[in-house]
Every structure is written in C-alpha cells, then in structure tokens.
Design goal:
single chain; mainly alpha
C-alpha cells in the first residue's frame, strides 16, 4: 500500500470514529427504550407468556408511532444540512478567483465541514428509518410467535379435554 493511500485510509477511519460517536450520541437517548425492549425480547423469547408477547407488541407499536416523527425530523435535518452545504458551496465558488476548475476545487475544499455535516445527518436519518423498519419487522415476528403459541395452547387444551 502506498503512503498516500495509507494516510487517506487512516484519515477516513479517524473521521468515521468521530462521526459515528456523534451519531450514536444523538440516537442513543431516542432509541434507548426500543433497544432495551428488543434486547429483553431476544433474551427471553422462549419463556415469554402469551400476555407478555401481546404487551411487547403493543409497547413496540406505540414506540414505533412516536419514532415515526423522529425519523421524519431527522430527514428534515439531513435536507437542511444538504441545503446549507449547497449554499456554502455557491458562496465559496462565487467568491473564488481563477478558472472554473480552480473555483470548484477551492469551493469544495472550503466547505468540507458542511459536506461532513450533511453526511452525518443523512446517516442519522437513514439509521432512524432502518430502526423504524426493524421495529415493524420485530412486531410482525412477535405476532407470528403469538399466533403459534395460541394455536399450540389450543391444541393442548383440546387434547386435555378429550
């Protein structure tokens, strides 16, 4: 590997670690309860009663309802970040001297923090969307488990009644 490539990869890793920490700090308070419910469900699925599964479905569905707003607000932040980046680029481009190519290079270099901020909020928006989709999948899976357990219970009660 060349020294320039190694330096570029190192810089990417450093920037990624800083940004992912910021993203996690933003998301953690919002996703904390959902993550705890999913962890609890995952750890105890075999021993959960029908009533506990019903309650989990309800809890996750209610949290999903609230989560929808958060997801949309995150998408708005991502769009704001994109707009501010584009505005900064236009200002830098207009204020630069030289050829079109020199102006593009200077503008791109001077707005790198806006580009990174846009990437951060695009990531957060995507993570919230993914989390909401996964909550829905977990609810569907719990519904399947619930139906299976209820059918199993009905069969057992039919056999016991004979």
């Amino acid at each position: 590997m060349t020294e320039k490539l190694e330096t570029a990869l190192t810089n990417i890793e450093i920037t990624y670690k800083e940004l992912i920490e910021i993203a996690n700090d933003i998301m953690r308070p919002i996703t904390k309860e959902v993550n705890a419910l999913i962890d609890y469900t995952s750890d105890n699925i075999e021993s959960l009663s029908i009533e506990q599964i019903r309650n989990l479905i309800l809890d996750l569905s209610l949290k999903s309802f609230k989560f929808g707003d958060v997801k949309e607000k995150a998408a708005l932040k991502a769009k704001c970040a994109e707009t501010l980046k584009n505005e900064a680029y236009a200002k830098e481009f207009a204020g630069s001297d030289g050829s079109v190519e020199a102006k593009k290079t200077a503008a791109t270099t001077n707005i790198s923090s806006q580009v990174v901020a846009e990437a951060l909020y695009t990531l957060i928006s995507s993570l919230f969307k993914t989390k909401l989709d996964e909550i829905h999948r977990c609810v569907d899976a719990l519904k399947s488990v619930l139906m299976s357990r209820m059918a199993e219970q009905k069969l057992l009660s039919n056999f016991a009644g004979e």
